[in-house]
């Protein structure tokens, strides 16, 4: 009934190729490197998988991260991304198309975003019609909210997770529509892929039960819903527990309890329906009361049992209590600017599409309405979750545009119920409206290409700035420093730095790190923070206890880079204070007036701490500009207070070309104890 | 009260034996067998303890899964429900049932440890 016409196929291929072209074009500016912080770790694990095999990867214990603790990688990572890349690499090499694993990793995201386009088309076609599906596929091919995670070179879980999400939802809608076990099992297998890919699978396992529950409330219970959900829940449950990282969470944590509750409720409801069909009203009522009494007893006993054994702990909002989670910039609430930047006009047409869906309600449209509402709430809480909002915005905007175009472009006479003579729309109105809509779409396309080329296409490892004459100046300090580390230090050297750079050091410099972006151990990070915030002697104690050989910091004062360690310093202090409140106090680092200053008026604790000394060592001799005094920090716009810095336990090992990365070597203990007399 | 409950249940059983086709009765017998197996496993777990937990879970979920799939099969081959399932013939329902069982047992065998 709904087959792929040749025109539809052409449109889909077009949208996929537009996407690939935009993203690959941007690679011309920079060589094929794998961007950003978490991606280095994913690449390193994939490399480990392809060199050593699947079982080695599942059982990998990484002793070069989180020294001296190490990290059980197999049990703490979502393997979907690495396995996908490894599988593609294996199959291609089997066919004697030799590709390096790095190329597979770099190009994986655009390929999967094309697949996302296709699954969005399928999903929207199930919800509305084919025209809306095509529009949705085109929207999601270029929308900036999704492009940030799917450029060539971004090798992160979200790249494949959004495809798995859309495909799972498509299969779910299909199984609710047909009531066939085949589609439900397909949905389970897709859900299993999603669980292996991203922690956001919790969204699926809560949205689908919510959909079933709302259908029950709306008295839209049907046998197809029963079949679809029961099969999905039970087979999906056992599939999701196959991933080592997820383990037994689906039957223990509170995030999965909604799904179990709806499952039990659905069984009871279906059984009652079955009885109702067979018995008279009187008989049904007697049995009903007995059943309700039994059920209440069972629920009561199970609640007592669960609270007694303490298996169900409700999670409070981690963001408020744990400073590490609060310090990540992606976890801040979303501003209105981000909504517009990422979605442009779609954010305005999206409510219109939602209204159309609610007006012509059926089982599937209930689902998309719930999806939209929950996604909007989550996107408002955290910037990072804009990504889950983007697909549903694309779908509903496509529905809105499709309705408008159908109304204003379609031939009135050919409709099933042609309108009366006077209520027909004049050709003028039709053409004006159509032109306006087309103009909106063109502006949207222009905006998307601009955003992609400017904001989301530069790897944050290589910085670019523009000179007075407009020519581009590339700052390659990070790679310079990492390669210095790689070539000039001992292979087993241990590097201490703030956790942001852990994956990069492990990936590009191939050295053991103390803390990295996984941030699973708060106390260890607090120790590093304490070392950075204390004076040199106290810090030296900590560094010796952790066997640190080198310390790496980022300093942006020469070029005005605002993401350096002095700007992050207060977070280091806060995290350290959380674990060692007697030694570190945040108020010590502020002036008596409560300001954070690095010049002469700054607090003495700040001017003598290790981070300050390492950042500004010998910076006092440097005069960048004849207008400013020597030692002028461009990022903080202040002349530094402590210019004559002497380091006792560290010595400077390397400073990169624009002083962005500074590496210090930790000196060994003295041969003779200077303070001893005799 | 209990009198009426017993009379309701006996009338229900009588109606059941006369009006359900034989095909569905076979499926119902299978359902009863699965239910008993699952109950036995749960009882064993309560008595002996949950170690190893993954083996218990895989066995129990295998029972629950087989039960659910058999219920789905029963719903789909019931001629009274034909209007709900226009695209699913009884043969297709049985084929889906076999496919679902293959997937379920593959996963259970992987999980049983």
UniProtKB/TrEMBL annotation, chain A:
The alphabetical list of record keywords is: Endoplasmic reticulum, Glycoprotein, Glycosyltransferase, Magnesium, Manganese, Membrane, Metal-binding, Transferase, Transmembrane, Transmembrane helix
Keyword Signal, does the record have it? no
Question: How is this protein positioned relative to the membrane?
Answer: Multi-pass membrane protein
What domain of life? Eukaryota
Subcellular localization, as worded in the UniProt entry: Endoplasmic reticulum membrane
Its cellular-component GO annotations read: oligosaccharyltransferase complex
Q: Which GO terms describe its molecular function?
A: dolichyl-diphosphooligosaccharide-protein glycotransferase activity; metal ion binding
Q: Its pathway?
A: Protein modification; protein glycosylation
What are its E.C. numbers? Answer: 2.4.99.18
Q: Where are the transmembrane segments?
A: 20-41, 72-92, 104-124, 130-148, 169-192, 198-218, 225-245, 257-275, 287-308, 336-358, 365-383, 389-410, 431-452
List required co-factors: Mg(2+); Mn(2+)
Segments forming domain Oligosaccharyl transferase STT3 N-terminal: 41-396
Which terms under GO biological process does the entry name? post-translational protein modification; protein N-linked glycosylation via asparagine
Q: Which family does it belong to?
A: Belongs to the STT3 family.
The entry describes its oligomerization and partners as: Component of the oligosaccharyltransferase (OST) complex. There are 2 OST complexes, OST-A and OST-B, which contain STT3A or STT3B as catalytic subunit, respectively. OST-A and OST-B contain common core subunits RPN1, RPN2, OST48, OST4, DAD1 and TMEM258, and OST-B contains either MAGT1 or TUSC3 as specific accessory subunit.
**Protein's name in the database:** Dolichyl-diphosphooligosaccharide--protein glycosyltransferase subunit STT3B
From TrEMBL, chain B:
**Record's Gene Ontology CC terms?**
oligosaccharyltransferase complex
InterPro entries attached to this UniProt entry: DAD/Ost2
Q: Where in the cell is it found?
A: Endoplasmic reticulum membrane
Pathway listed for it is: Protein modification; protein glycosylation
Where are its TM segments located?
30-49, 55-73, 93-112
User: Where is it predominantly found?
Assistant: endoplasmic reticulum
Which keywords belong to this entry?
Endoplasmic reticulum, Membrane, Transmembrane, Transmembrane helix
Q: Write down the membrane topology.
A: Multi-pass membrane protein
Q: Which biological process annotations from GO are given for this protein?
A: protein N-linked glycosylation
User: Which Pfam family is an annotated match for this chain, by its short name?
Assistant: DAD
Position of the signal peptide: none
Origin: domain of life: Eukaryota
User: How does this chain assemble?
Assistant: Component of the oligosaccharyltransferase (OST) complex.
The protein's job, in short, is: Subunit of the oligosaccharyl transferase (OST) complex that catalyzes the initial transfer of a defined glycan (Glc(3)Man(9)GlcNAc(2) in eukaryotes) from the lipid carrier dolichol-pyrophosphate to an asparagine residue within an Asn-X-Ser/Thr consensus motif in nascent polypeptide chains, the first step in protein N-glycosylation. N-glycosylation occurs cotranslationally and the complex associates with the Sec61 complex at the channel-forming translocon complex that mediates protein translocation across the endoplasmic reticulum (ER). All subunits are required for a maximal enzyme activity.
State the family it belongs to: Belongs to the DAD/OST2 family.
- Name of this chain's protein: Dolichyl-diphosphooligosaccharide--protein glycosyltransferase subunit DAD1
Origin organism of this chain? Neogobius melanostomus
